[in-house]
């Protein structure tokens, strides 16, 4: 309950907050921009205009003062009473220089009355006047001032009028400044909100998805395992077929060619005995006998290569016993512990067991310099376990072990794995070597067809 | 997420402090603009409706009153309206001829108002005015002492063939409705400045002229001449010219001008006195206090038989000292 409302309120405050944060900071800037834009141009305009007008008034005052000064020069005392002449001088300035009013004041700053009505330009509106003065000088003495007034009303109204458009401009710019980033942030906020919602949705579906995926994964794994199993079966079957084939060939060789050659040998021996000693025939027969012996030996080797025929002849346990007997010497004692299941083993298993033990014994004899050897063949419910252990010098597996020297260990492992078994080598320099093989018993017995092959 | 929330919290002291600082900076900026406006622009724009000088007459006991430079004894200074000058100079010449110790200076025209002001300021002994005193002038203690009445004539250049017009025609000429003399030559109107006593005298007697005259000033229709002397010269040398002038000016200075008859009457004493010739103005001395010494003597001379005879000889009508 509380977990559910917390993200919602967070999301809401997050949304409101971002906008409010930005707008709170934009507002002062916007106000500043508004003030600056709307005020500065009219102010500058008003200032320049007023300065220009005052400057103009000053210039006019100087000119008027000069004109009056010439009058003063001519009539040092009475000049100020000749309103007509003064007027004539000054009126030109009112008309031409745009002065709103021109007045002359005397030394004491009292206005000299020029007319019943003062000189004022008809265009000069009411409103504030800016007065500028220039001294009227006679013999380096100031005898009065010419005063010129300009109307500031126009400059004021112009500045006020400018305030309108520039105010609008300021409002426009400020609006742009304010609303463009705010719009952007609003959009961004909306996107954040959307992604937050999406994230929440995603969180909800994630577990489901994970469960889905892992079930898919295990399914795939299962499929893979099945495929691997089938592959292994296939290879085992191939091995079986091959093994069976080899035994057939070996038996054929042994039974037909071997028998025939043995018969030939007997005949030849008879020929040697029957022929005259040291006769050509006897010599030839003796030579042929040697060749037949060699051929027989070749065939025996080929037969034993193709398949340990001894297995067919004496069975696995006896064959292993014989092997051990062969390897036993005075300084090498081989202890054995051999058992096979009641139904016996399939031909493939038998030959693999035989070959593994053969290779292991060979290696021990060749490389280990061991004094004791132990060979174990044990039956477990699911496996046949093979162990060959010596107390020899051992080696570093992988250093010059499998694959690096001969093909012995590699071939061993390949044979075992083709039948779905595994091989482990426990060894270290100076602490002997133990080779342990586990072979699944029921690798092939499920299938009726295979057993037929195995039998064959 | 947590960070956003932290930023959004207005209660967050750091965020609100930075916001306050921002506002402070902005207000400072606005205040800066305001100060700029107040210090640099406002004084430029601020005018004063009060003129920067003193107005009106300076009382004599005021510190601002300018004492005139002392004038030498035995010299009479007169200044004022140009209308008075020809007659006054004639009177002065006659006066000086009778009493050789005396010296009289009649300055060039400064107008009636200037004459009054000069008298008030004690720059001259007597002012010369060709119009009635204004109330304001009477209030500061200036008195008018009339001495002659002068007909205002319609003077024309000698090239003009006409010798008489009607008052209506005069108004038409100044209004620009009548533009040619009887021989077809164009009429050139010369106007005196606004407030001239001659124009005032005609305007008073002829309302149609007053309106035309005023309109002409407004529209700058005619050439405006500022002094009697200039007016006389301009009339004398401009073909087809017409303007208002004092009768005495023509005869006293033997100007090559002709005065036109108005509605059949010339500017004679009899027709002026009877009112048949409608335009005239009164000439007077302006004095601050009761004049004494040479000034009083001169005023007496102007009203003497000799003075009156001189006036009459030149078309002026002598007036008694007090009317
Ligand atoms: N029982 C053992 N004791 C000591 N060293 C061994 C033993 N078995 C194998 N090795 C070492 O492992 C190597 C590889 O053996 P193997 O693959 O059978 O090839 P090969 O016997 O032809 O040398 C041997 O050369 C030997 O050095
Ligand atoms: Mg080997």
Keywords:
heterodimer, A: Beta-Lactamase, Heat Shock Protein 90, 9 helices, 14% strand, disordered N terminus, B: 323 residues, alpha/beta, D-Maltodextrin-Binding Protein, domain 2, 2 domains, 11-stranded mixed beta sheet, flat, binds adenosine-5'-diphosphate, binds magnesium ion
Structural topology:
The complex is a heterodimer of chains A (456) and B (323).
Chain A: H1 2-74, H2 83-97, E1 101-106, E2 129-138, E3 141-151, H3 153-274, H4 280-306, H5 309-314, H6 316-327, E4 333-338, H7 347-368, E5 372-379, E6 383-390, H8 408-418, E7 422-427, E8 433-440, H9 448-455
Parallel strand pairs in A: 4-5
Antiparallel strand pairs in A: 1-3, 2-3, 5-6, 6-8, 7-8
Chain B: H1 2-8, H2 13-45, E1 75-80, H3 85-98, E2 103-106, H4 111-120, E3 126-129, H5 135-139, E4 143-157, E5 164-165, H6 167-175, E6 188-192, H7 197-205, H8 207-219, E7 223-225, H9 228-237, E8 241-246, H10 247-252, E9 257-262, H11 269-274, E10 280-287, H12 293-302, H13 305-313, E11 317-318
Parallel strand pairs in B: 1-2, 1-3, 5-9, 6-7, 6-8
Antiparallel strand pairs in B: 3-10, 4-8, 4-9, 4-10, 4-11
Helix pairs in contact in B: 6-8, 7-8
The structure holds adenosine-5'-diphosphate and magnesium ion.
The site of adenosine-5'-diphosphate has 17 residues of chain A, from helix 7 and helix 8.
Alpha-carbon distance between the two ends of chain B:
109 Å
What is the CATH C level class of the largest domain in chain A, in words? Alpha Beta
Average pLDDT score of chain A: 82
Strand count, sense and barrel status of the largest sheet of chain A are: 5 strands, mixed
Q: How many helices of chain B in DSSP terms?
A: 13
Query: H/E series of chain A, N to C?
Result: HHEEEHHHHEHEEHEEH
- Shape summary of chain B: flat
What is the CATH C level class of the largest domain in chain B, in words? Alpha Beta
Shape descriptor of chain A = rod-shaped
Assign the CATH architecture of the largest domain in chain A.
Answer: 2-Layer Sandwich
Work out the radius of gyration of chain B.
32 Å
Task: List low-confidence stretches of chain A.
Answer: 1-14, 444-456
Q: What's the CATH topology label of the largest domain in chain B?
A: D-Maltodextrin-Binding Protein, domain 2
Spatial arrangement of strands, main beta sheet of chain A? 4-5-6-8-7
Number of domains of chain A: 2
Q: What's the end-to-end separation of chain A, in Å? A: 74 Å
Largest sheet of chain B: 11 strands, mixed
Number of helices of chain A: 9
